[in-house]
Amino acid sequence: MRVMIDTNILISSILFPNSVPAKALEAASLNHTVVLSSYGIDEIHLVFQRKFKDKCLFLEKFLSKFSFELVYTPLSIEKEKFPEIRDEKDLPILVSAILGDVDIMVTGDKDFFALDIEKPEIISAKDFIDKY
Fold first, then answer.
1. Would you say 4 and 96 are in contact if contact means Cβ atoms under 8 Å apart?
2. Contact present, 34 and 68 (Cβ < 8 Å)
3. pLDDT digits (tens, 9 = 90+) for 30-48
4. Nearest Cα residue to 14 out of 49, 52, 46
5. Are residues 85 and 29 in contact, defined by beta-carbon separation less than 8 angstroms?
6. What pLDDT was estimated at residue 65?
7. What domains can you pick out in the chain, each with its CATH number?
8. What is the rounded CA–CA span in Å between residue 56 and residue 2?
9. What pTM was estimated for this model as a whole?
10. Per-residue DSSP letters for 73-131?
């Protein structure tokens, strides 16, 4: 299966290597194809620059050693072609998951759980570990 890891799960995994998100990421990488979006990679760099400047080198090492498929996020998105999501900042992630033909999206963002879509399946880190 193709499993997209949302930015919040990735950040938690990097900062807290023994956390539930880290265990979900490890399970996904061992048993499935992990997918990240170009938007998510940009977002994680911005978050680390703003909040965890002293850990930026660690982020780069993590990303360079971690195996994943990168899905390009379009710069221009026609909103009406995709499901409506409350937080517009989440739309590029959702669009990337849909266009990247992702089966599962692991996230901690409640706005994604409010979506009524079949694919990708939106799931928490804990539920991913329990189910897959």
1. yes
2. yes
3. 999 999 999 999 999 999 9
4. 52
5. no
6. 86
7. 2-131 (3.40.50.1010)
8. 27
9. 0.92
10. PPSS--GGGS---SSGGGHHHHHHHHHTT-SEEE---HHHHT---SSSEEE-HHHHHHH
